[in-house]
Amino acid sequence: MVNKVAPDYEESELGVGDSTLVRAMCETFGRSEATIKQSLANGEAKDLGEVALLSRVAQKMLMMPPKLTIEKVFADMKALATASGKDSQKAKKERIQKMMVASRGAEAKYIVRMLQAKLRIGIQIPTLLQALAYAFVLTVPSQKGSSGVPDRRRGQGKFSAGDLEARMVSMEGAVKQAFCEQPNFDMVIAALMQGRDGSNLHEACHISLGIPVKPMLAKPSKGLGEVGERLSGKRFTGEWKYDGERAQVHVISRDKIFIYSRNSENMTEKYPDAIEAVKESLSEDVESCIIDAEMVAWDQEKKVILPFQALSTRGRKNIKIEDIKVNVCLFAFDCMLCNGVPLVKETLEARREKLWKMMKPIEGKVTFAVYRNFDDELKEEEVQEFLDESIAGSCEGLMLKTLTENATYEPSKRSLNWLKLKKDYIDGLGDSLDVVPIGAFYGKGRRTGAYGAFLLAVWDPENEEYQTVCKAGTGFSDEDLVTHYKFFESHKLEKPEANYNVTDKMKPDVWLEACQVWEIKAADLSISPVHTSAMGVKADGKGIGLRFPRFLRIRDDKQPEACGMLSCSQSASCLSLAASN
Ligand code: ATP
Which residue range or ranges hold the ATP-dependent DNA ligase family profile domain (predicted)? Predict the structure, then answer.
């Protein structure tokens, strides 16, 4: 249901392009590419999944292979994800053909959609975790019956209504926490199958070495006033907010160190130099640990931080230390585990003490985030002064974090106990926003031959659709425009996806797959009759649009569905800004 065959930190991309898929469909169903395209163009089928279904139903077969089982399909999908080498595309095509030949009823449709990673069942991970929790409360495993098969009884009969509800709430919390700390369905479900519940699931599924935790995130703040409101009366610390890439470092042993991104992707091969530096900086008594940090591009000669763009020029795979052109420095700011002991429930003050003992700084390679602690009585001038220092130090602003009260590490939460205070918020320009290009307009003049502007959208998790926020044509260098044009050559759509909510006035020349995230900056928000985001929130029948949007960069570390106007950090700043307009 999550349309993945493995957790994010393992090889989980199926790597099946539409061309392989179409070729497999042609051979399986005896159709030509032209008739498949025609079915899509004339509206007979909404997507390739429906083409597969219609083709399968129309096909007469003398002999049917054995029925597909979930186990077999899952194994085949896993094999697709791990296939590599010279003949792998051919082997993948044959495997797909076998699955399609054996499919019955609607199976071909879902197999094709799975292969395209567009299952369209409208289920997100939180919903699935909730469903899992309820399922395990409502069916209670008892001792194995005489046949050896567990006898599952319905929970409702066993508990009173109030008791049942309490169990569901406790189980849901436990399952969600377990998945935050150990984002691996195999492990969480295995622990549930053992009969664990809200009271003891945590004993089996907790933060562990080699399994990246979903990182703790911060809430945006609009300025010193808001910081004061939220943090006054609490002991808190300010840290420089470095503009790089989140890096979760797992030291399993001195010779086994891994680095994961904000999205739990394995970045170990990208940063062999940082791994060496961590190894060198670890204190002798540290055998294993998990450290939260920011990886920042660093100029070795001038001893200064370089902009984020410098970091993005580094390759990702198989990087050799001798070939590295852009150096990095790791700024550590938290730790979640040390020598087998989880630290997430400790206060930030205690965790930071431990972090400082775990490693020694090495100039220009590994160090700790610059910080300043503030007493419970907030003095705005002091915070302002520290903010100015951070900007002079090439940082984006400050992260303000509670030190003792409500100061545990909250995996995957966008917590009020961490506030980001960026220079831009204070300038009144607003934070940058993450959006998804879903359409493109052909360029004119100098831009002829490429796209001149793009239709940008945000994801609304409630309505499960992409809603437009602006059309953007500035901020792109000539090189950017060529890069985007080439990238989208293989991500064009014949027609908009069913979940694109676009008004007639905004129809682009070319529809694009929602497969990339862009960071943009806008001057302002306005009520818009042509855009569909937050439709009706501020004015009947009108949405919220962005004024003067400007492209900043591609964000490889974020998924399109994390760009929710209403769900993520940007929504808070956007909607409150919108409200104040
Ligand atoms: P988010 O990660 O909150 O979704 P985002 O990706 O747009 O938002 P920002 O708003 O720029 O990122 O800020 C949060 C990020 O700042 C963190 O995810 C982390 O990568 C980075 N960061 C830099 N310095 C620190 C620090 N001292 N403490 C925590 N995070 C820091």
Answer: 321-460
CATH number of 432-579: 2.40.50.140
Predicted local confidence at residue 142, as pLDDT: 53
Tokens in use for 79? 């094999």
Residue ranges around ligand 1 (CB below 6 Å): 217-218, 239, 241-242, 246, 262, 294, 333, 369, 399, 420, 569
> Out of 1.10.3720.10, 3.40.50.150, 1.10.3260.10, 3.30.43.10, which CATH number does the structure's domain 18-116 have?
1.10.3260.10
Q: Which atom of ligand 1 is nearest to the CA of 246?
A: 20
Helix %, strand %, coil % of the chain (to 5)? 35, 25, 40
The predicted structure's pLDDT at residue 140? 60
Mutate to test the pocket of ligand 1, among 399, 414, 417, 434 (most ligand atoms within 8 A of CB): 399
Integer CA distances (angstroms), 197 to 141, 188, 204, 345, in order: 11, 11, 10, 20
Query: Using CA atoms, how far apart are residues 310 and 521, in angstroms rounded to an integer?
Result: 19
Distance from Cα 421 to the centre of ligand 1, integer Å? 11
Looking at the predicted structure, is the pLDDT value of residue 522 above 90?
no
Q: Does residue 445 sit in helix, strand or coil? A: helix
Alpha helices in 83-160 (DSSP H): 88-102, 107-115, 125-138, 155-158
Structure-block tokens of residue 322: 């001798």
> Could you tell me the CATH superfamily of domain 219-425?
DNA ligase/mRNA capping enzyme (3.30.470.30)
- For the chain, what's the residue count? 581
Which is nearest to 331 in space by CA: 288, 362, 357? Answer: 362
Catalytic residue positions, numbered: 241
Contact 455, 438 (CB under 8 A): yes
What percentage of the chain carries pLDDT values higher than 90?
Answer: 63
Q: Provide the token pair at 537.
A: 């929130």
Q: Given the cut 0.85, state whether the ipTM is greater than it.
A: yes
Please state, in angstroms and rounded to a whole number, the distance separating the CA atoms of residues 554 and 456: 13
* Domain edges within the chain: 18-116, 125-203, 219-425, 432-579
